[in-house]
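Exercise 3.2. Students should predict the tertiary structure of the chain below and write it as structure tokens, then compare their answer with the key that follows.

Predict this chain's 3D structure.
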Amino acid sequence: MRAAFNAMRIVAWNCNMALHKKCDHLLALRPDIAVIPECANPEVKVAGFVSTSSVWIGDNPHKGLGVFTFGDYRAERSPIYRKDFPIIAPVHVDGPTRFNLLAVWACHHKPNSFDARLGPLRRAIGAYRGFIEELPTIVAGDFNDNAKWRAGKPDNHLLNVSELAALGLRSAYHHDRADKQGTEQESTLYWRRNANRCYHVDHCFVPESWTIAAVTIGRFDARLSDHVPLIVDLAMAH
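Answer key:
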């Protein structure tokens, strides 16, 4: 007897603020779960935007990290959330598939960004290891990082990749494209909206046992953001 499957779509998109003016563009991507760095606190203003639940963290009400769910999914911030990793949120997601989500907007410019030269994501992976191991976990968002940067340093992206791999997580994009970290053919960041300064810094890591149906990199539109959406479609057994 064949296993039945349902689809789940994860969208990670740094909206570069003013999400209330860009809601239609996000909704057109039809996410089940959206990880949105640089968005305003939805209690402040996200007019015309209806989600089934939302989680938001940040120190600026106009520019933080949001997680939004749609359809049959619901999200709730874990009580283990700590503010000392800017800006990363442990989130419980319930619905057709139950899992944990580590939503990431890795800020490297905050006073508490680094400790012993370790960046926010590396520190969060260690602090939230039990959370990651508790349930199948997705780690997604704007890592602000690429393997080509800070080679050999304790905050190099490959160390994060290695730690996530040890926890049974793989990058959906790199698995789908068979690209190596640092050799990506498609970019997710157009620095200062410059098409000649492109980097792949947005990532979605999923459990190795999950089936990755498709990965799509959105088109760059300078009117919307300096980032493009990373869209990951998963085929979930139920």
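Discussion points: The first helix runs from residue 23 to 27. The first strand starts at residue 5 and ends at 12.
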